[in-house]
Amino acid sequence: MDFIGAYAPSHLTFLLEGFWVTLQVAFLSIALSFVVSVIVGVIRYARIPVLSQVLATAVELVRNLPLLLIIFFTYFALPEIGIKLDKFYAAILALVIFESAMISEIVRSGLNSIEKGQIEAARSSGLTYMQTLWHVVLPQALRRMVPPMVSQFISLLKDTSLAVVIALPELMNHAQIINGRNVNYVIPTFLLVAVMYFVVNYALSIISKRLENRHA
């Protein structure tokens, strides 16, 4: 093991550049998948005819597919039908598709957890179905969704490493390039990569616990 060589300034800078790409992909994927999953979850909760059934089928399909296959599809298969995406956006699209299916189930479960009595009380007070959903059900449900959602977001951040298969210049890709220069760099490099992932994911878990305690 060569810690001194593995942690040379040029290598550390290279790893940080890859980590920045990882964080960008994760942040954009989290933001987009949250929006999509809330829309899908609400539509399924509202049981809109036809559309709800179509989305339910799509969600079950995606949930039972490996993320790696979806990444391959967005980067290698979409160009066959005229949709060519950069590695960065192909990775984001794959993550959004996969995570939206997962998180939409969290949203739907959260909405279903709200007591029917509150909904009936809101409707009897003169609120429409959509007003009840927006002002009564959704705010409470979102608070209950925080812990499982953050857990899913942590998984998403870790799943960005799978984009190494399409040579996205993220953290794992850069780590592999450094390891390729000297076999003695492998353990030191992967130890540092593990620490970088841990720090961000642990910070997310702390935020989740604080939000959960605040709304307890």
TrEMBL record:
Gene Ontology CC: one annotated term: ATP-binding cassette (ABC) transporter complex
Record-linked InterPro entries: AA_ABC_transptr_permease_3TM (IPR010065), ArtM/GltK/GlnP/TcyL/YhdX-like (IPR043429), MetI-like (IPR000515), MetI-like_sf (IPR035906)
NCBIfam families registered for this protein in UniProt: HEQRo_perm_3TM
Lineage, opening ranks: Bacteria, Bacillati, Bacillota, Bacilli, Bacillales
GO biological process: amino acid transport
Statement: the UniProt record of this protein carries the keyword Cell membrane: yes
Keyword Membrane in record: yes
Protein name per its UniProtKB record: Amino acid ABC transporter permease
Subcellular location: Cell membrane
